[in-house]
């Protein structure tokens, strides 16, 4: 498989974790999000992913350009080890946590939105950073509320096996730290992210360890 | 089943369409997003959905508070008629279109973000409307690029059977029209939405036909 990736993209980071967890070998094809006016906007890349967003996974003649669609595809085509529980209620809980990050939090803070706040609305750095931290607080706060004290929360988000919820959580916590957000009010989120970060599949997916990593 | 819903919430609208398509009877429990400072923020509602967002579906002792997690749950527990194709590549394409709306477009324009633009950033109505139209253009433009000329696009987003992609598309087109966005540059999106809007399951899910509808 080929993964079109940018080392700092948290959506790409999710997919790298899942590929590692499932033991799938892949080739990284770097797509630089700020060089050349954004390589993801190039005609060549849009032929792979018409939406012009990173990541995209190519598996033979199948090209998928949405990280959660990629994760579900990997789950269906490479079911072991499973990243969703077997019961529909458990699957719904795991997907709800994953989507609370993928839909309700991450899209508000991704690069193109930050660029629009700056260039479209004329916000300065301080106002942009305040926006970022606001949605981290709201979004990770919601995830904390879903996890804290819930009987199915275990070592990881759902019991003691890694699931898609954890795969989404770790890159989001990485983003929060990168922007110096205070997440001390989210002890369950912090504890689970730290537990995941001890696992080799998560370590190898870290932005700093990617072939296109920069300082 | 019980659906905690707000007539104008496009995430609730998605779930209503899917429940209708699958012929599942449900009770609507209205949650007013602007009355009482937002009923979705109440302690009573947060006991159902800790994230404090609409919709939530309650099926016996299972409560799910993310629209896409609800749709996948309904697909797993009520597989007929299927809203995902049988093949992993087709499922990935349908999910990619659905997620292009659920992740890349809708979260940027939902009520709490518009409220934050106004009260947090002090944007006036014109600037708020420009934000809305910007992301409609970017987001539905990406969906148009995924659909137009693709060999698997048919009467609906994926062939001639309704899928989750259509379930997501129609409420988003409703939103675009409500904010007077010009989507004439998206003929495939427009054509497919119009085809869906002829189906009874979509008609009955329309905001204006809900028990909590207002002018």
TrEMBL record, chains A, B:
Q: Record's superkingdom?
A: Bacteria
Indicate yes or no for the key word Isomerase.
Answer: yes
Which keywords fit this entry according to its UniProt record? Answer: Isomerase
* The protein's Enzyme Commission number: 5.2.1.2
Identify the CDD domains for this entry.
GST_C_Zeta (cd03191), GST_N_Zeta (cd03042)
Gene Ontology molecular functions: maleylacetoacetate isomerase activity
Q: Which InterPro entries does the record match to this protein?
A: Glutathione-S-Trfase_C-like, Glutathione-S-Trfase_C_sf, Glutathione_S-Trfase, Glutathione_S-Trfase_N, GST_Zeta, GST_Zeta_C, GST_Zeta_N, Thioredoxin-like_sf
Q: Which residues form the signal peptide?
A: none
Q: Show where the GST C-terminal domain sits.
A: 87-215
Where in the numbering of this chain does the GST N-terminal domain appear? 1-82
**Similarity comment: family membership:** Belongs to the GST superfamily. Zeta family.
Q: What is this protein's name?
A: Maleylacetoacetate isomerase
Species of origin reads Yanghanlia caeni
Gene that codes for this? maiA
């Amino acid at each position: 498989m080929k993964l079109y990736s940018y080392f700092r993209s948290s959506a790409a980071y999710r997919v790298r974790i899942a590929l590692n967890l499932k033991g799938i070998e892949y080739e990284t094809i770097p797509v630089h999000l700020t060089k050349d006016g954004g390589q993801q906007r190039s005609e060549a890349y849009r032929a792979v992913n018409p939406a012009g967003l990173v990541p995209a996974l190519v598996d033979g003649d199948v090209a998928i350009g949405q990280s959660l669609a990629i994760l579900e595809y990997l789950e269906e085509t490479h079911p072991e080890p499973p990243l969703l529980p077997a019961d529909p209620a458990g699957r719904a809980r795991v997907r709800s946590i994953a989507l609370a990050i993928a839909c309700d939090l991450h899209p508000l803070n991704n690069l193109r939105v930050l660029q629009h706040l700056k260039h479209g609305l004329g916000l300065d750095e301080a106002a942009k950073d305040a926006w970022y931290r606001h949605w981290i607080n709201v979004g990770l706060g919601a995830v904390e509320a879903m996890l804290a004290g819930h009987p199915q929360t275990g070592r990881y988000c759902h019991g003691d096996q890694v699931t898609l919820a954890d795969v989404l959580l770790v890159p989001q916590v990485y983003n929060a730290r990168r922007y110096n957000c205070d997440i001390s009010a989210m002890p369950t989120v912090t504890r689970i992210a730290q537990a995941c970060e001890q696992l080799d599949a998560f370590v190898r997916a870290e932005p700093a360890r990617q072939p296109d990593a920069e300082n």
